[in-house]
User: What shape does this take?
Amino acid sequence: MIRTITFPYIRFPAYPTDAFPVRTFIERPALQTTIEYQGKVFPNFFFSIIDSGADSCVFPSIIGRQIGIDIYSGRSEATVGVAGSGTTFYHSVTVHVSIQGQLYHFDCYAGFLDGLDQFGFGLLGHHGFFNLFESVTLDSKKKIVELKVEIP
Assistant: This one.
């Protein structure tokens, strides 16, 4: 049996720029997130963008450090993305996300990238998030996310 979970994009404040002088907000497919490592949970939630362009789940290094992860001891991969180029270090964590007020958690081999520290948000990518579902639909016109999950 397939269950469909649908929820709206989240509206974030945004400052006007030369390119977008009247912009006051940006709507993104995002979830409230927290991370757990060896029983220690990051005390506050942060937002993670559901990113169809991200190969894996990647979070700001500063968040990993705050829950005791020795970031640079992880397996490394050179990456290029929204935060520029850099080295992402991978560790096994438990990710908690809130969807429509319900908390879900999953084990994840996630990366930590110093370049995301300046943005303060994580990325939920194909390996670790998308692969948990039968399908993930990002409807930019309707500003909704649709997750289809198989229920045993």
Q: What stands out?
A: The two ends are 7 Å apart (CA to CA).
